[in-house]
Amino acid sequence: MPNVNNNVNVNKVTAPKVQAKAEEKTESKAEFKDNSTAMMDKLEASAAINKAGIVKSTPKFELNLSTEELEKRTNKDFLAPKVLLKPDSKEYAGLAEGDKQALKHLAKTAKIMDTIYMKMDNENNLAFKDYLEKETAKGNKNAEMSLKIFNAQKGISGIDMESNMVTLAKGQKDLPGKAFYPADLEKEEFHNILINMLENGEKEEVGKILNQRSIVERDGDKLKAIDYCDKFKEEFTQIADELDKAAETSTNKDFNEYLKLQSKALRSADPMLDAVADKKWAELQDTPLEYTITREQYADRMTGSVMENPKLSKMLDEAGIVPQSKDSLGCRVGIVNKKGTDDLLAIKKYLPMLAEKMPLADKYTQTITGDGDAKQTMVDVDLVALTGDGGAYRGGVTLAENLPNGDKMSLQIGGGRRNVYHRQIRSTSQPEKIQKKLDAVLDPKFHKLYNEEADHWFTIGHENAHSLGPKDNCDAGLGKYRNIIEENKADMGSISFLDDLVKEGMYTKEQKDQILVNFATNTFLKSKPTMDQAHRVRSVMQANYFMKEGAIDVNKDGKIEVNLEKMVPTAKKMLTEIIEVQLSGDMKKAEAFVNKNFEWGEKNETIASKLREVNKTLNGVVESPLADELTK
Q1: How many whole angstroms separate alpha carbon 261 and alpha carbon 251?
Q2: What is the DSSP letter of 141?
Q3: H runs (alpha helix) in 200-299
Q4: Residue 569: is the preceding peptide bond cis (ω within 30°)?
Q5: Residues of the chain whose pLDDT is less than 70?
């Protein structure tokens, strides 16, 4: 049983004995009333304790990292800031007054979402944060440095850029079920409880437990699911109130309609209300502001484990239950950048053509079809706030998002997807550091083809590729490998169609080569990731796959070389294998595909060691000066 500092005390309260002696009968009525009230209070307390069985005590925390380690991790050379819009930014100054007022309310919701996310991540997060703040106020320097890291990774535990788990409090662990599940629930017990519940005919409750929007609690020897709208009712109501206020001043009619729909969805545990709000959100294109409640499934490692149990997996299949990993919630608030958005929209007209060119396209349906509307909006956004799951700097922070994901009901009712790109996250403008990296790991003859902007072009292809391929949720059976496979698909989709986009005039031949060189260089990592890091695992898989195919190599000088002619054919080959795995819905096939390609060999480590030498960054932090000013 994991030690997560859930200290509990079983208190036995003995009912008070009442002895009515003759001399005590002379007490006043007031005294008798006081004693009687005290007696009833004790009896009620006893009854409450007997009913609950246990009482949780306040966790006692002890800092985990040494002073030396804290000083290193909070040093500017090891902690990289990503600074969002500032109060004096031209983007904010250019807004209409009504949108500025709306932005205040939206920024407030982002702060609240941080609290919800931390509650989902670890049940002790908020108590530990309070402990750090109090200790910092007392002058505890280690607590002050720990708080800085806590605010960056938004939790007691978080993985750093070299795949090390950073745990700030002793005795704490990063649990596979986060706080979506009871902290003392282990996988074997979890599986057995679900099997027993299914055998007892409790199919409906098991379906709720394995739903993406529920928080799971113990119910005797069973489990019960609570919809997150009910679990976080107070916070969701606060957010909904602020959204309604924002809709009163925002200048865009469509945006206001979406805010009201999202507000309504937060007030009721009804997935269809979320679907309607998502559908409207995905249609927004010409709005001054951007607002998203993000829902991603990368954190939950417990739900997908049910596919590892053959008996349980079979029972779920027979019951028609498709397990969906829990959604971690986040919030994005921003100002839409018109020029950047226009540049993004240039690719939209090609999406139906790319959909037709997807491997095995005749074997499935997809969101984007060759003869209809692409059903995808795209915006480039200057960020005001990025909180919760999106703003938690754990090994990295997202450059862009393509939502809703394939498990969401909005896609089933005819909705589309929306790509949102984060300008402040992708902006680096550090030519000296980039050159230092190239000198260390890339063969000199390819330096002229390394273009920082090509990373953005690649990301555009990646996000659009999420909308290509099977849309019928057939990959839910891939369990813990589902996200790895999907991210792998998006990368290969971005590379596979470069020749087609050059032919159509979207990119020049030189731009295509720049994308390929950037991809080849960036697919090598600073360290071997854990299997829980879907984005990084897929990078290692791709580096190995492309090296086996002769498209990429690490030469005798320890430098990356790129065979430009083999890059696109290799991507198409890997993409075909990925689609086959997704269509199979078979976790064993997914596991075999991942294990075959996820190897950390000598060449991987050669590049990794050089990357660690030239880039000392271990942690990052998102700073939101404009949001901080708006929410004072």
Answers
A1: 17
A2: H
A3: 203-209, 228-231, 233-249, 253-266, 271-281
A4: no
A5: 1-58, 369-373, 428-429, 472-473
